[in-house]
Write a structure and sequence with these properties.
Length: 46
């Protein structure tokens, strides 16, 4: 039996995506896009 107990916060992924957006999207066309219900999509900037 596998125990899948996570002791961290539920928004850990959102937090790190926020850090990434601040670093790579600063002053440019956003590369990281949120797909509701699916996850994240990275597209090259234009």
């Amino acid at each position: 039996d596998v125990e899948l107990d996570f002791g961290g916060q539920a928004n850990v992924v959102e937090l790190y995506i926020s850090y990434l957006r601040k670093k790579i999207d600063a002053g440019r066309t956003p590369m990281i896009h949120t797909r509701r219900g699916a996850g994240y999509l990275i597209k090259p900037g234009e």
